[in-house]
Amino acid sequence: MKPLELWGGVECTVNRVHDRWHDQLRLGGHHERIDDLDRIADLGIRTVRYPVLWERVAPDHPDRFDWSWSDARLARLEALGITPIVGLLHHGSGPRYTNLVDPAFPELFARFAAAAARRYPWVRDWTPVNEPLTTARFSALYGFWFPHVADETAFLRALVQQLLGVAAAMRAIREVVPDARLVQTEDLGRTFSTPRLAYQADYENARRLLSLDLLTGTFGPGSALWKRVRGMGFSEAELRATRCPPDIIGVNYYVTSDRVLDERLSHYPGHTAGGNGRDAYVDVEAVRTWGPGLLGHARLLGEIWARYGRPVAITEAFLGCTREEQLRWLQAAWQGAEAARAEGVDVRAVTAWSLFGAHDWDSLVTQVRGGYEPGAFDVRGGLPRETALGGLVRDLATGTPPQHPALGTDGWWTQPTRLSYPAVGPVSPPPRARGKRLPLLLLGAESLLGQALVEVCALRGLPYRLAAAEGIARIDRDGLLGWLDAHRPWALVDAAGLHLGPASACAARSLPLLAFAREVRGTAAALHPEALIVRGFAAEQAPRGLRGLVHAALDLLVDGEQGAWHFADPDGPRRWPAAGRLRWGARAGRRADGGGER
Q: Collapsing DSSP states into helix, strand and coil, what is residue 337?
């Protein structure tokens, strides 16, 4: 078996909400930056999921195409030696002249796919429609996206239309590229429940696999949903026409993909209540209430392999959270894929998704609110700035053992603190501590800033040690190096220089707030004289604004940045995680590893 590969992906959703179109490529600036492809190549990535989207190429008429943007990008990928997996529809309902429940949708989509294949006959790997079942749910079952229908029959129609489009698109593509491969993605989280709601969980678990069952031709009279689907007016011939077995099944799995159904409404906030007409219940993230914990990447990959017997890949691995938790989630995906391979599962790759981040997914891309979640690069400062996640991507892509100190701690989704509601089922113990857990050294914890650092480090799972700043100051250089060698911190955070008082005393926005000194993988080193200085945050809003500052500043520390940085939140200070909206810009910023100006 070939070694596990690390693929990459760019968040490229173009979805429609009423008459407003949301384009992730424009929101993140990737539309204008062709040199982003060089950044991807620099990470060592050699396969990337990349968009040639119907809504962008032929927005106004099915026979009028503008290939200019795609021509330039695919040519650059080819020159860089990067293999594209071309996506044609990504959470979209199609251009304005069609939609998911339009009977003409499959034929129109196949015409576009044929044109794309003729334009790029050297492309072998295709994902005509990303996550068709998820798109059908959001568009025609929940009504979030166009055509804003909330009906089970409409949901099934939207799903079948997309799958007929996939089958027709692949036939058209293979007329041009006979060995073209279908890489079919889907979000495949599991639904758990209380005993009373087992019947609903069984239905939802069967429904989550419906797109793959139809494509692989395994959906038939013996299937759990066969009578239900046939009873909604779908003919057997129409359902069988969706058959187009994937060459690789792409498993998309997020920390919130697994769900729990619970009829005990009093255990949850009122806004989570819903039902099916028979029972009232909540549908919440399993990570927040399911005692046994998440299904996990390894078990999910094993289930899909056992059911379909086709090669699998994790085609989206992404977590919108603090930097070290992003590192831990990607590592968990990689380790899960390796564990599945050890059990005989044909896992081809893990995909670092949203390399340049994602916008407004906190509202399911129904509103443009400025929400942003960084990826391997952070684009909030203008030009993309590589993050610690980018460093882990490079390690995995090049076969280098990951060494980041934050990886010594397991992710929050494995800890007892993950439970926000009374547990459903027995609670699994947290995993055993593994390897070295190198700490941060915090100086000046007695200050208000230091207290915020302690609180935030505990929340983020960053081990730390406290030291009195005055005591450190009395140690000579040799003594300091010996002290550092004894405690072996991977970085030092000095919060001793700031004593926040009333708002009137905090008007000097140029006041240094934090100084960071990076260590070299746990070995003692002299304090860097050019330690990171963070300036200009609205400190008079402490402590709420201070927490946002600390979160953002620790992201920079985990990334290994040095230099002076300016923070600003145009909407005022917020509680985490909304403080992720913070914008920053470098003032002579330089990476601690000696990299160039940022």
A: helix
Secondary structure letter of residue 520 according to DSSP:
B
Cα-trace Rg, the chain: 25
- Residue 291, SS3 per DSSP: coil
Taking 3-state DSSP, the helix, strand and coil percentages for the chain, each rounded to the nearest 5, stand at 40, 20, 40
Residue 300 domain flag? yes
Cβ density class 262-287: b for 16+ within 10 Å, e for less: bbeeeebeeeeeeeeeeeebbbbbbb
Specify whether 153 is located in the same domain as 292: yes
201/238 same-domain check: yes
- What's the half-sphere exposure (Cβ side, CA atoms, 13 Å) at 170? 24
- The DSSP code sequence of 363-386 is GTTSS----EE--SEE-TTSS-EE
Which CATH number is 256's domain given? 3.20.20.80
In the block, residue with structure tokens 């609180």: 455
Using CA atoms, how far apart are residues 316 and 67, in angstroms rounded to an integer?
26
Q: In the structure, what pLDDT confidence band is assigned to residue 491 with cuts at 50, 70 and 90?
A: confident
What are the structure tokens assigned to 453, written together? Answer: 């650092």
Query: Distance between CA atoms of 88 and 166, rounded to whole angstroms?
Result: 10
Look at the block and give the residue holding tokens 């009578």: 227
What confidence category does residue 571 fall into, taking pLDDT thresholds of 50, 70 and 90?
very low
Tens of pLDDT, residues 30-63 = 999 999 999 999 999 999 999 999 999 999 999 9
Specify whether the CB–CB gap between 155 and 140 falls below 8 A.
yes
Could you tell me which residues come within 8 angstroms of residue 271 by beta carbon, excluding any fewer than 6 positions away? Answer: none
The residue range of the domain holding 219 is 5-398+410-418
Q: Which two tokens stand for residue 155?
A: 């949901």
C-alpha to C-alpha distance for 139 and 206, rounded to whole angstroms: 20
> How far out from the chain centre does Cα 111 lie?
32
Least trusted range by pLDDT, from 376-390, 452-466, 499-513, 556-570? 499-513
CA angle 245, 167, 250 (to 5 degrees): 50
Neighbours of 460 (CB within 10 A): 21
The rounded distance, in Å, linking the Cα atoms of 15 and 318 is: 20
Query: What is the DSSP code (8-state) at residue 96?
Result: T
